[in-house]
Amino acid sequence: DIQMTQSPSSLSASVGDRVTITCRASQGISNSLAWYQQKPGKAPKLLLYAASRLESGVPSRFSGSGSGTDYTLTISSLQPEDFATYYCQQYYSTPSLTFGGGTKVEIK
Amino acid sequence: EVQLVETGGGLIQPGGSLRLSCAASGFTVSSNYMSWVRQAPGKGLEWVSVIYSGGSTYYADSVKGRFTISRDNSKNTLYLQMNSLRAEDTAVYYCAGVQRVFHYWGQGTLVTVSS
């Protein structure tokens, strides 16, 4: 199975900050990467897929980039509603899909 | 509007069985990849199982031989039969679809395995 390693596991940031979260795959995944946001007690919500394609309805302050084994989620200007936990997921190696360990974004 | 509604969770003793259901609306379960994903308390997301549109099924090693995914096309409903439950199966179980990228999620149902 492909292992997904997210960093950092948590971070503290202020409203308006630029935030970057990294996800590294144990082998190349050809941009087959999705990012999800999860708030406490709620189901995850898809933000981006194919590494950089924004899901319908997701604000443009969220963006994704990367290639090969290394991918990044960027929030250009952190908003109060963005404090949550973020997960990456690879879907290159099916049927076994794998998630990163998560990054909790907290208020500084 | 797409909606997924899970039911069937609860408290069950180790070694017991439980069947989860996921009723779908707004799309056809049988035409899509449908998965179960779980989240242990305070932990991350773990893919559990998938059923493809053609009917093929696959499982995470942690549940292989104990869990069975299925669907009822007439009810547009996805199921997860869970047998020989262990304490480490305690989690919120989500159904998710419609492909390998999870555009849609249910609200989740909590399964607690404890004596």
| Mean pLDDT rating of chain B | 97
Task: Give the rounded overall mean pLDDT of chain A.
Answer: 97
Strand percentage of chain A: over 45%
Largest sheet of chain A: 7 strands, mixed
Report strand % of chain B: over 45%
Order of helices and strands of chain B: EEEEEEEEEEE
Unreliable segments of chain A (pLDDT under 50, ≥5 consecutive)? none
CA radius of gyration of chain A: 13 Å
What structural class should be given to the helix and strand makeup of chain B?
mainly beta
Q: What is the overall silhouette of chain A?
A: globular
Helical segment count of chain A: 0
Major sheet details of chain B: 7 strands, mixed
Percent of residues in helices of chain B comes to under 10%
Measured between the Cα atoms of the first and last residue of chain A, the distance is 36 Å
Inertia-based shape of chain B: globular
Counting copies of identical and different chains, the oligomeric state is: heterodimer
User: How far apart are the termini of chain B?
Assistant: 40 Å
Per DSSP E runs of 2 or more residues, the count of β-strands of chain A stands at: 11
Can you tell me about this structure?
The complex is a heterodimer of chains A (108) and B (115). Chain A is mainly β. Helix content of chain A is 0%, strand content 49%. In chain A, the strands form two sheets. In chain A, strands 2, 4, 5, 6, 9, 10 and 11 form a seven-stranded mixed β-sheet that branches. In chain A, strands 1-3-8-7 form a four-stranded antiparallel β-sheet, with no helix packed on it. Chain A is globular and about 35 Å long. The model of chain A has no long low-confidence stretch (mean pLDDT 97). Chain B is mainly beta. Helix content of chain B is 0%, strand content 52%. Chain B has strands at residues 3-7, 10-12, 18-25, 33-39, 45-51, 57-59, 67-72, 77-82, 91-98, 104-105, 109-113. In chain B, the strands form two sheets. In chain B, strands 2, 4, 5, 6, 9, 10 and 11 form a seven-stranded mixed β-sheet that branches. The radius of gyration of chain B is 13 Å and the shape is globular. Chain B starts with a strand and ends with a strand. The mean pLDDT of chain B is 97. Classes of the chains: A mainly beta (108), B mainly beta (115). Chain A binds chain B through residues 32, 34, 36, 38, 42-46, 49, 55, 87, 89, 91, 94-102, and chain B through 35, 44-47, 50, 52, 58, 60, 94, 100-103, 105-108.
